Amino acid sequence: MKFNTKAIHGGQIKEKGYGAVMPPIYQTSTYAQSSPGEHKGYEYSRTQNPTRHALERSIASLENAKYGLGFSSGLSAIDAIMKLFKPGDEIISTNDLYGGSYRLFNNIYEKFGLKFIFTDLRDQSNIESLISDKTKLIWVETPTNPMINVIDIKGLADICKSKNILLGVDNTFSTPYLQKPIDLGADIVMHSATKFLAGHSDVILGLLAVSNDELAEKLYFMQNSSGAICGPMDSFLTLRGIKTLHVRMDRHCENASKIAEFLDSHPSVDKLYWPGLKKHRNHDVAARQMKDFGGMISFTVKNGNFEKVKKITSNFKVFTLAESLGGVESLVNHPATMTHASIPVDERNKIGIVDSLIRLSVGIEDINDLIEDLRQAIG
């Protein structure tokens, strides 16, 4: 089954009761049992819910994985992964990552004895020197948030397998339409499905996809025991969004390509970050492991300070200044004061999250309107 068909039908089971085309919203907390322990596969909706299961089967199908798991947010999905480890374990992570992930690692799990080593995973020549017998996971975003750095998943997977280390990939920016980490050797794939998968800025939800039976069993245990599951309505909305993922992503990428071309020649733009540019570091890796280059673009403004960037980001008419990304509408974001404010300023500056950095989530509006909005906002 090809991806465009999988997006609509993958992992789905036809509803037998009334022939509903869309999986029904099972808005129930519990299920009747014919006798103690005798039921139809469902007991309690924290543990099992048919609507959530439909979504979990869908993400497993799209990621070419055996199992999918749904959570209340992307961070709760990452939280479940962290609970696989014990005090003293070490995790190597890309140093350019979502501020919420950094906060979860540094401010919460370090207190429980996990050690995090942040490094630039684009350069894999020094990775093995960071690995010890305590290393249990390498955590990757690619493309990264917000610097849009591209990391070689297969290269890391080869290292991880030789060292018996898990490889986890945050695939939020790419979605399974553009990139399939499990096919490239990853063990765990995470999505903030709030973003491109749901696609309409109306739900908060996280997903995991895995193929290893033992790993899946452990994660299902965490999901049920900790209880940070997604509800049936959010599951339904996300599943509905997935059905148009391929159509939306084509337009996100098409629009981003034209906006990158416009920004690349704009006299007020200093540095531009988008994997589709041949001058972008690891463009060749992106071309190899991604179907297209995505709808996320970051750039810095020449001679930009916070006041200048504040004026630009407040001046958009079509783009909306807001947190998050991946919806049908175009969003503009100032990472240093918004999504990545939880990262200490010295660390932000080291990886390029400076006051002059602006991040765009390119939507699916008319491209001429988007470019004109950029023209008048930047000046």
Structure description:
With 379 residues, the chain is α/β, with parallel strands linked by helices. The protein has two domains: 3-242, 3-Layer(aba) Sandwich (Aspartate Aminotransferase, domain 2); 245-378, Aspartate Aminotransferase, domain 1. Helices cover 36% and strands 15% of the residues. It has a seven-stranded mixed beta sheet, with helices on both faces. It is globular and about 75 Å long.
CATH class division of the largest domain: Alpha Beta
In total, the number of strands is 12
Question: What percent of the residues sit in helical stretches (DSSP H or I)?
Answer: 25-40%
Q: Could you name the ranges where pLDDT drops below 50 across 5 or more consecutive residues? A: none
Question: For the record, what is the CATH homologous superfamily label of the largest domain?
Answer: Type I PLP-dependent aspartate aminotransferase-like (Major domain)
Architecture of the largest domain, CATH level 2?
3-Layer(aba) Sandwich
Please give the radius of gyration in angstroms: 21 Å
Judged by helices, strands and strand pairing, the structural class is: alpha/beta
Sheet bearing the most strands, described?
Answer: 7 strands, mixed
Total number of distinct structural domains: 2
CATH topology (level 3) name of the largest domain: Aspartate Aminotransferase, domain 2
Principal-axis shape: globular
Please give the order of strands in the largest beta sheet: 1-7-6-5-4-2-3
Average per-residue pLDDT, rounded, comes to 96
Determine the N-to-C terminus distance.
47 Å
Give the H and E element order: HHEHEHEHEHEHEEHHHEHEHEEHEH
Proportion in β-strands = 15-25%
Total of DSSP H or I helical runs spanning 4+ residues? 14
